Amino acid sequence: MAVTGKPTPIKKSQLITELSESLEVSKKDANTFLEKFIDLAYKETKKNGAFVIPGLGKLILRRTKKRKGRNPATGQEIEIPAKTVVKFSVSKLCKEAIVPTKK
Hints:
Blueprint: H1 12-23, H2 27-48, E1 50-53, E2 57-64, E3 67-70, E4 77-80, E5 83-90, H3 92-98
Antiparallel strand pairs: 1-2, 2-5, 3-4
């Protein structure tokens, strides 16, 4: 199935409605679960450097090195400082579920 036009991601309220209906819990409980899950992902990534969501992927803290770059407007060489960034790595299972490999 090909994606056409501008994608419209699911909104938080729609996600909470879907969770509450499929889990047969109140919307309030579904919202609490979602907020606690997100909170846990943030804390664990900050504490351990990674948080795995089985079947979906992994949040990873990465440290970039200091490097040289160029100002695109002037072409002047600039120093880009080292920093910590958060990356999300999609699992193989997730990739294959969304875009199956051709045989």
